[in-house]
Amino acid sequence: MDAFLFLKAALIGLSIAAPVGPIGLLCIQRTLAHGARVGFASGLGAALADGVYGAIGAFGLTAITRFFVTLATPLAICGAVFLGWMGVRLMRAAPAGAPTSLPDAAGSWRAFASVFVLTIANPMTIVSFIAVFATLAGDMAGTRPAAVVMVLGVLTGSALWWLALAFGVAAIRHRVGSRALQAINRSAGLFLLGFAAWQALGILR
To answer: Do residues 83 and 195 make contact, with C-beta atoms less than 8 angstroms apart?
Structure first.
């Protein structure tokens, strides 16, 4: 039963991570520019944020849920500003040569942290997980072990998606020249600015 519950949760984590959005674009761009390690680290930041919100939903932490819902507008504003800032940085990036991996782990940690903050600043993530875990309440049977299995499954499914995406993109990254990479940077930056503007419009409405 635990194995089935874990598999179901992993599929949920995979389905939440898979749709291409600003996080997916960042993972692809960073993989092309710096390699699979940095791209996967970016994805793990999103996976951990999903796990945090998943734990809140799985364990029924009502007070924390209300806290995040109360901060929905400030979090959305911070997320829009952060997205816009990252979009401007990408549009201004001008690689001088072929893509190369970063020489140390600092770049991976920065990539991880930036995407974690970006994902945790999206209040819709917690709403999604609360809805998901509400439909699976019967499977969890209100027990802590089942809730732990669910959270671990979500983390695993999300992480597997980012791993597959990063290494899939890395397989073709050396075929991408500097001009193509610059065009990708600018396109990704433009898309991030578009996502930021869309989120800002949602706040104003």
So the answer is: yes
